[in-house]
Specification:
alpha/beta, Rossmann fold, 2 domains, seven-stranded mixed beta sheet, 8 helices, 14 strands, 30% helix
Length: 281
């Protein structure tokens, strides 16, 4: 059994998704995003001084530097099993998000089996849980159509389908998302109603959508807001997350300028999320 490289990069959360895409190109296989820290793992047989230099250059380009990167060589162990053991079922609103290897007690909640490439999108991140709670409070009407921008594992799009949507689209700029979300749709017997594509909004069909998720970052959401609004049905719900509580007022003001107002809100730790609706809906 080979040794494992455990990488830690300290840098702002805004850069995590970009760095994950970069590290995946270097053959890192698993990722875990924590506040101001990104961790990644790869078999030690793939590690080299060239890879180290590439990681340090990427970290510097994403807001870190050589001192932000630490590397640990883990002795031979089943590191994939260690990774899997760290992922336990999470309850959020009407949903339970669990990896396929977790045993679950009988529940009345919607069960979503999600095997991730990274912890974001498993329900471990506050913003994902907030989205699931907001969705639980106001599920889509039967036969509705959903769009998930920055879909990751596909968990929010699949949750919309479980809650009553007829069709869901997921888009993500990270290449790892497409196969991972596709596999998760298959695990939940939703492949016939779920579609995923690499890219941003332009990768999905035009609306209208009855429900739109954007669980990304404020810096991405605000420039994208006109396009999100354009795809929203007149009486649709726009769930925004990945936003800090300190950023709430700026986001609410930007939405108000487009005639969107908070219908419900939620917070957990430093994170804030909101379900927006048109003021005349």
């Amino acid at each position: 059994m080979t040794r494992t490289i455990a990488l830690s990069v300290r840098l702002p959360d805004d850069y995590h998704d970009l760095l994950i895409a970069d590290l995946a190109d270097l053959d890192f296989e698993a990722f875990e995003s924590e506040p101001d820290e990104l961790r990644a793992w790869m078999p030690a047989t793939r590690w080299s001084e060239t890879v180290r230099q590439s990681v340090e250059a990427l970290a510097a380009a994403r807001g870190g530097g050589p001192e932000a990167v630490t590397v640990e060589v883990m002795e031979a162990q089943d590191w994939n099993a260690t990774w899997e053991a760290s992922l336990q079922p999470i309850e959020a609103g009407a949903f339970v998000v669990a990896p396929t290897w977790a045993d679950l007690a009988p529940t009345n909640r919607h069960v979503l089996r999600i095997d991730p490439k990274m912890s974001f999108g498993t329900g471990y991140h506050e913003s994902t849980r907030l989205c699931l709670r907001l969705l639980s409070e106001h599920p889509p009407a039967d036969g509705g159509r959903a769009l998930d921008v920055g879909t990751g594992t596909g968990v929010l799009a699949l949750a919309a389908l479980a809650a009553g949507a007829e069709e869901a689209w997921g888009v993500d700029v990270d290449p790892w998302s497409v196969p991972n979300a596709t596999e998760n749709a298959e695990r939940n017997a939703m492949s016939d109603r779920f579609h995923v594509a690499e890219g941003s909004l332009e990768a999905a069909p035009d609306g209208p959508y009855d429900l739109v998720f954007a669980n990304i970052l404020k810096s991405t959401i605000l420039p994208m807001l006109p396009q999100l609004d354009a795809r929203l049905a007149p009486d649709g719900d726009l769930i925004l997350a990945g936003i800090l509580q300190t950023e709430r007022d700026e986001v609410v003001a930007a939405c108000a300028a487009r005639g969107l107002a908070p219908a419900s809100e939620g917070t957990e730790n430093e994170w804030w999320a909101c379900r927006m609706r048109r003021e005349d809906a």
